[in-house]
Write a structure and sequence with these properties.
248 residues, alpha+beta, five-stranded mixed beta sheet, two-stranded antiparallel ribbon, 8 helices, 7 strands, elongated, 4Fe4S_Fe-S-bd, Succinate dehydrogenase, 2Fe-2S_ferredoxin-type, iron-sulfur
Length: 248
C-alpha cells in the first residue's frame, strides 16, 4: 500500500503546530497503524528529520497509551479497537489519513501526538483506591457478591484510561472515565466504606482538572476501545446525589 499521512507536528507545548503531509510507501496491509508510523519515523531519521513523537507501550490494546485521533475518530475507524491494534487493511491504497493528538483543554499537547494526561492521575489520586483496613485476607468466597454486580464491576474495570472519551466529547468531559473508576470499586464489598467520599472527591478533582461538563452526547461510549457503557454515567450521578444527602 502507498498512502499519505497528514500528521500534526508541534515542537512543544509553548509553540504552535501544523499538519504536515508525508508519503509512506510499500506498507503491508497486515501492519498495525503504529508499525506504519515506525516505518515513517525510520525514513524521517535517515533523512535527518525529527521523528514524529507518539505514545505507545504494550501494543496489545491493554495499556491505553496509543492516544491519537485518526481521520477525526479517537483510535480510528474500527469500534472497540485501540490504535495499536488497528491494522492498515482497514484503509485503502492511495488514502490520505489525518492523524492528530487528543484535543481537550485538560490534555495539553507536549509534542506532536503526545499529550499530558496527568489530569487523569489526579482524579485517581482523589479516590480511585481502597484504604479501609480489612485485616487478614478473607477466603475468596466468604463475601457473596451478586453476579450482576460482579459482572458490571468487571465491565467498568476494563477501562484503560486512554482518554478517548475525553477526545471525542464535544465538551472535553471525562465523565465516562470517572464513572468507570467509581463504579468498579463502588460495586464491590471492599469499596463500600469509602463509597460516598470517593464519588464526591473524584468529581471535584475532575472539575479542578479543567474537564468540561457532561451533556449526555454519548460520543464517549461510541469511541471507547473497551466498550464502557454510557449508563455508568447515570450510576455515577445517582451515587453522587446519595453521597451528598448522606453527607448533609
Amino acid at each position: 500500500m502507498d498512502i499519505k499521512v497528514r500528521v500534526w507536528r508541534q515542537p512543544s507545548s509553548s509553540e504552535g503546530g501544523q499538519m504536515v503531509t508525508y508519503d509512506v510507501k510499500d506498507i503491508s496491509p497486515d501492519a498495525s497503524f503504529l508499525e506504519m508510523l515506525d516505518v515513517l519515523n525510520e525514513k524521517l531519521i535517515l533523512d535527518g528529520d525529527d521523528p514524529i513523537a507518539f505514545d505507545h507501550d504494550c501494543r496489545e490494546g491493554i495499556c491505553g497509551m496509543c492516544s491519537m485521533v485518526i481521520d477525526g475518530v479517537a483510535h480510528g475507524p474500527e469500534k472497540a479497537t485501540t490504535t495499536c491494534q488497528l491494522h492498515m487493511r482497514h484503509f485503502s491504497d492511495g488514502d490520505v489519513i489525518d492523524v492528530e493528538p487528543w484535543r481537550a483543554a485538560a490534555f495539553p499537547v507536549i509534542k506532536d501526538l503526545v499529550v499530558d494526561r496527568t489530569a487523569f492521575d489526579k482524579i485517581i489520586q482523589a479516590g480511585g483506591y481502597i484504604t479501609a483496613p480489612t485485616g487478614a485476607a478473607p477466603e475468596a468466597h466468604a463475601t457473596p457478591v451478586p453476579k450482576k454486580d460482579a459482572d458490571l464491576a468487571f465491565e467498568a474495570a476494563t477501562c484503560i484510561g486512554c482518554g478517548a472519551c475525553v477526545a471525542a466529547c464535544p465538551n472535553g468531559s471525562s465523565m465516562l472515565f470517572t464513572a468507570a473508576k467509581v463504579a468498579h470499586l463502588g460495586l464491590m464489598p471492599q469499596g463500600q466504606p469509602e463509597r460516598d467520599t470517593r464519588v464526591i472527591d473524584m468529581l471535584q478533582a475532575q472539575d479542578d482538572a479543567g474537564f468540561g461538563g457532561c451533556t449526555n452526547m454519548g460520543e464517549c461510549a461510541q469511541v471507547c476501545p473497551k466498550g464502557i457503557p454510557l449508563h455508568l454515567i447515570g450510576r455515577l450521578n445517582s451515587d453522587y446525589r446519595k453521597a451528598l444527602r448522606n453527607k448533609g
